[in-house]
Protein 1
Amino acid sequence: MTFEYTPYILPLIAAELVIVSVAFYSWRHRSTNGALALSLMSISIFIWVFGNIFEITGVELETKYFWGVFKYIGVAFTPYGWLIFSITYSDRAKILTRRFLILTAVIPTITVLLALTTKWNRLIWSEYHLDQQGDYFSIGVSYGFWFWVHFAYSYLLLLSGAVLLIRVLWRRQGMYRWQVVAMLIAVLAPWIGNILYFTGNTPFPFLDFTPFTFTITVTAVAWAIFGFRLVDITPIARDHVVDSMREGMIVLDERGYILDINSAAARMIDVPIASVIGKTAEVVFRPWSHVVERFRDVMEAKDQITVREGEEERSYEVRLSPLKSAEGQFMGRVIMLRAMDEEALQQERDLLERRVQQELAERLHTQVLLRESEERFRQIVENANDFIYRTDVNGNFTYVNPSTLKIMGFASEQELLGRHYLELAAPEYRHKLKRVYEHQFLRKTKSTYYEFPAVTADQEIVWLGQNVQLILDDGQAVGFQAVGRDITELKQAQEALALSRDQALGASRFKSQLLSRVSHELRTPLGGILGYAELLQYNAFGSLTEKQHSIVDNIIESTNYLTVIVNDLLDESQIESRSLSLHNEYFNPAELLEKIRNTMSMLANKKGLAFHTEIAPDLPAELYGDMNRLQQILINLVGNSIKFTKTGEVRINLKRPAPALWSMEVRDTGVGIPVSDQQNIFEPFRQVSNSITRENRGSGLGLAITKQLVELMGGKIKVESSAEAGSLFTITLPITNAPGE
Ligand code: ADP
């Protein structure tokens, strides 16, 4: 085989490159609808062009013959591939049964077999020879019988594929426009090419134009399928979904022209799909003119329509919704139609009826509940012992409960409704009352309580205590409501109580005054008695017998005791009437202690008790206070200690327990005080019952006066003791300066 280069093969090689790319690309994307068929078709075309290239460049007749028949493998199967592609792309793959594929492949297979052996059977080429065109030789052939069979068959497949595709494309709108254009080019290219070839209108009459046109076809198809990656599946999916829907779908443009309609809708209106696209809804829906009228300018609706079809009446559910562009511009409307058969209609009716009945029952139930709850509250309000009333924003009664009427002595609510609440208040309280509620209104105080006297219909005074709440509507006060009760008895009781308290206080004051006057008056004659008794004792009125001496001693002792009691009573009454005042000054605590020592140590020693005093070194040399009263306190405590101690010692310590405090401790080893009595001993006239208290005289006022004096000084007194274990009394006082220092 010898080959010779000729520039005619350049376009063929270019076509071959395109086809190889398409074949490869569609093979890789063979899951896309139609891609596998496209890939097979590309391979056929590739073989066809491949044979063509070698046929052209072959020098000898036999070489040209060999490649000339070889290319029939491609020639015979290209239309076959086209048909399969068209079927798949138009989503009718279910007709591609094994049987269908084998049957349709019979003629192409025979064509290939006959072509490869045409030298002997002469059914494809009956004769072939070298043809000279200038200095270029081509193979000239006369076609045999089978060639025409193949020819006719090929065009039949080509035509069928074209029809299938055009039908799909016809219904495709808008967004698929470029796919439509590409597919139209794909469909038309082989036809135009062939027409040109057979009519001899080509620049190269000896060059078969068909492979080129198929290259265009394959490229255009590839563009259509893969050029728009996002939509390559959509048209098919759309057809599949929309056409298999049971609901009818009609798309109208903004002028009411039908852009798209699916099979279900076409069936419902009973029109062929192809004949309605591009027509107005009025024309197409002529039998349904009342429906068209009803929805003419409606953008959005959900409704039921009934149309007459011959004898029959059919019902449809209609849904209308507007179609808008991404910019929100109105582009048309979508109409969805759902046929309602008798059963569905009945179901719908039942559902509606049931819903109404449910709703009715619910409303009834709510009303009953509401009425019940109203009744409950009415019962509570009307039977309440409390008065309950409402006023409008001005304060005029809008509601009064029976208790209000009863308390205020009115017979019917008509006598009160519309009247102002202030009219019922006691005149001297009206001004105050008005201020209280104006304040509540302005401040928006939720609730207030106020007591005031009111005047009943019989001109009697009743005291009322009422809780008043603002009635708010949307944050605005629209009135008041009050709940309250007749507190006249309570008020009277309170007044009586206050009166008796005042009386008791007065009596107590009188007692204290009496006590202090009496004790004060007693002290002068007591002084006289003591003076004369002492003169007797010193034999100022002549010498006394032994017996007389002992009597005078008794008189002196009793008078002394009486003086102590009178003094105590005076102190107590003064403290109680708060007329006792302290005389504070700077004093030396060591001096205080010395004075006590002088008066008390003899008494202790007489009983055989040790007597100790001690001052802590950190105690200030000067303290501010009432030294006489402090002395009185210490004498009381030390006197008790000596009195209640039989053996042992009595000890006084002055200390500074904290920087701002000083203390006086009186400790003894005496009988002690049971814990249960420790609180009582500070109350007036309280004594612990024991042999000593029984044997000794005592007023029971000493500790009471001590405690009150200590407290008057701003200090505290405490006792630590237990029976038979001695006692410790501690008085703690603040360290203070004279006022103004
Ligand atoms: P009285 O005049 O009886 O002493 P006080 O008020 O001074 O009255 O004391 C009340 C009582 O507290 C005393 O009667 C005594 O029972 C008890 N008491 C006070 N100090 C002591 C103490 N140091 N030891 C034991 N008992 C005491």
Protein 2
Amino acid sequence: MQIHTTIDSLRRARAHAGRLAFVPTMGNLHEGHIALMRQAGEHADAVIASIFVNRLQFGPSEDFDTYPRTFAADCEMLEAAGVEHLFAPDEAVMYPTRQTYHVEPDPAQATALEGAHRAGHFRGVATVVLKLLNIVQPNVALFGKKDYQQLMVLRNMVAQMALPVDIVAGETVRAEDGLALSSRNRYLSATERTEAVRLSRCLNHIRDAVRGGDHDFDALERAAMAELATHHWQPDYVAVRRQCDLQAPGDPKDALVVLAAARLGTTRLIDNLEI
Ligand code: PAF
């Protein structure tokens, strides 16, 4: 695997890479990322991953400083997955001057759900992803469905800005008990890790209920929030939404998704299930 720390080095390699699939990450890789790398290989001649912990998408009281940085282990996993190129810039490469131009996603889509609890998060994500796409110039870029709202915001950015890249979604990878894999799972204590599965269980319960004909979404959401709270979680939201734009369901034919975010101890977990 070639590791590029500068834009020049990456661009020289890009010129000879043929059809290129790109998987941007913030490192601390797990099997969910590796599944995306393998999926990326099906779309291109070569796969490029990036590792960059993007300060712009963290709020002032969030975990930017403590976000796990595990570069050597990440490189081993990428090598083993057959990834050809890694772009691993530092802040001076990505933000040589203070970033004063930003992508402002549609507030209707970026200030609900995650956006309501993480002000400016999607602006930071969209800005760095636009910049990464401009640097890497891939034919296809892959994002996991675990960050469902991020995927929607980025799809819309690419469509509305007519960026010459196809966006492909990867399925969420789960631990055996159902917990969605996430870099933040490593913050959980052993007891919290056992409890953490409750989040996906609540989502499964709502999915089964809706599939079984229960369309009282408010009641289902409230019951799940109450169950989480009873077990000492601090839920931010449990919400049944339309898949297409994450707005409240209207037409019974809408394809739906249930999304949730909740804090267990000091760790904030998110998850979702398409219904
Ligand atoms: O999903 C992530 O890891 C990040 O939000 C991304 C897309 C790499 C942008 O920093």
Protein 3
Amino acid sequence: MRAFQLVEWKHPPELREVPVPEPAPGQILVKVAGAGACHSDLHIMEAPGPPPGLATELPFTLGHENAGWVESLGAGVTGFTLGEPVIVYGCWGCGICANCRQGRENYCQNLGGQGPGLGGGHDGGMAEYLLVPAPRYLIPLGTLDPCQAAPLSDAGLTGYHAVKRSLHLLGPGATAVVIGAGGLGQMTIQILRALTTATTIVAVDTDTGKLNTAMHMGADEALPSGDEAITRIKDLTGQQGAELVLDMVGIEPTLRMAAQIARTLGHLTIVGIGGGALPVNFTSPPHECSVASPYWGTLPELMEVITLAQQKRIRMLVEHFPLERANEAYRLLHDGKIQGRAVITPHA
Ligand code: NAD
Ligand code: ZN
């Protein structure tokens, strides 16, 4: 089969011919319908060597945001029918530590506190078939189209997890700011809209197209990134700042902005892996403003994300690319030219 693989650090991935994996007992083979191209893959491709927390062996197949159809079942696997559409939970933990047993395989205690996940060391879904090590990682999609649904497993799940841990702050009159309205940001805006009724949602981005999309996705305001956004958010919140600031970029300027627009007792949540650092002292971020850097999300949360999509409360703007155009999809993502999510469709 064809697989889009990272062969060498700091080199563009290559489309290579590899054997179709055979599911061993307890495993499942998934025929890939869609594999989302995430900005994290660009960070991996641009890294000089294995990023911290990721498995290190090259080559491996990219793609940690996958959905498809059950192709074949290893011995002992029951409960799935062949051809059934499923989404793949991507944080593959040990399954037996305390965090894994609670569904938090994103924080597996036996894998350094952060599961490496597929497509980041394990072979991912940018191939015709994907080997999934255990049935618990597959969630039936029902009537959802797996070519459209793939981004729910990362862009959707990561945004959901980041919002859910701060939900208690988002009562009527509260403000939530999403910095970076790309793949993750657009999902997060819709999730905020679906989970909170009377919270003001503000999107901040450098790109006019993304700001327009953010408004369509449920933002109350969309502001160009910079000092004027800071002033506007201060004005909107009676100079107090926002209860929740989600930085989906994570570079120095966005982190600095986040610290200025978060309020006392608020949450400043760093989701973006842009490599910036946030200076912390007694007065900045504001007093008792918690800073967190959530990684991906939990299995139960992915089930909730699927429910939101089935209820048509969230959807991803998807642009499809065949496997042979995967490098082009990433180039467009790098250049900010993907409006929502690029999804590779190996069987289209
Ligand atoms: P994307 O490229 O689709 O979106 C990024 C958005 O940020 C774009 O809309 C871009 O215009 C905007 N942007 C860039 N510079 C900006 C600035 N200075 N101010 C405001 N907006 C700016 O990327 P994505 O796939 O949504 O990923 C976003 C980030 O989240 C990446 O760093 C990715 O690695 C990270 N990520 C983290 C997790 C996690 O578990 N924490 C999971 C997935 C992705
Ligand atoms: Zn990702």
Protein 4
Amino acid sequence: MLDINKIRADFPILSREVNGKPLVYLDNGASAQKPQVVIDAITTAYSHEYANVHRGLHYLSNLSTEKYEAVRGTIARFLGVADEDQIILNSGTTEGINMVAYGWAMPRMQAGDEIVLSVMEHHANIVPWHFLRERQGVNLKWVDTDATGALDPQKVIDAIGPKTKLVAITHLSNVLGTKVDVKTICDAAREKGVPVLVDGSQAAVHMPVNVDEIGCDFYAITGHKLYGPSGSGAIFVHKDRMAEMRPFIGGGDMIREVSKDAVSYNDPPMKFEAGTPGIVQTIGLGVALDYMMDVGMETIAAHEDDLSHYAQDKLNGLNWLTTQGTTPDKAAIFSFTMQGAAHAHDISTILDKKGVAVRAGQHCTGPLMEHLGVTATCRASFAMYNTRDEVDALIDALELAHDLFG
Ligand code: PLP
């Protein structure tokens, strides 16, 4: 069982007040807070261990390189990837998916080819594919969620046709909390010879993930949602896809030799990591993932499961609130609108006055908002350090907003 008092004590920001009230931070879907060990690792790296990586023959450069490179192994362990050379370090999911779009998809796709997407994708897993639509005439094929926000894997499998060159799908919706059975999709797609990219930005935070078991071709994660620094992240690329992929960004580090007439490249994964990387951010991410693994992903998932059910019951009791996404095993992410009342931004402003931080808007999911028939929602998204008391604080603040606007 998760020791909630210890966990909360590990995150210094949680003890501050906002607007004279104890902070209730429920905007974890946007970005999570950082434990002291991550903050300390950043300070130590800059205070005592900093130099550029892969470049020098001096002590600090070697130390920095060692710490930075060790994170590749930590990420592989965290994601259940046996071969760490299949992990490309980057600044986050947006960079990872763009790398696949430019380096792997663009050279392989032609007018009329198709990419299958779900309607609940984040813009980071939509806009790079729109580039292929605009520039190369690739068609985007959308699969809808049902009324509960569930995505039937069979509907995704059925959408794969002879022209499909890629399935790009989220593992867990950042708006609905819906979990997607990506393994079933990957098994079927592999039989049809179609690679699958999984956006793991949200799933990797809330549940144990084993990429080798899922059997996908690409799996993207982003460090700042994983209690690590912003500007850190990684993408798993299966070695067969890596062999097919062109470098997306050119520069130092990713080359073997450069002359006036020719260039040859470093071995993968370095071939796909150009320029000075986010050294300290990546080191911080490694510490964050170790922290999560020490707590235990099963333990985190069980704690958040309890919060999810508790919050679902409480929110269901507010008959003037419409909650989007009601699958029974959903993650503790709740998007809602207040019937006949204020705009999501006004509700979040009232909540903020009570110290409750939520996000309001489209959550970078334009097609999902269209599908749900809403212009915006408020989103309360929970993390391992949240408590049932904080669910109660959210409900109290919502009741206040309802009194004011309802
Ligand atoms: N995919 C999902 C599901 C997300 O929730 C997010 C961030 O909100 C992203 C992708 C983009 O992540 P980043 O902005 O860190 O690249």
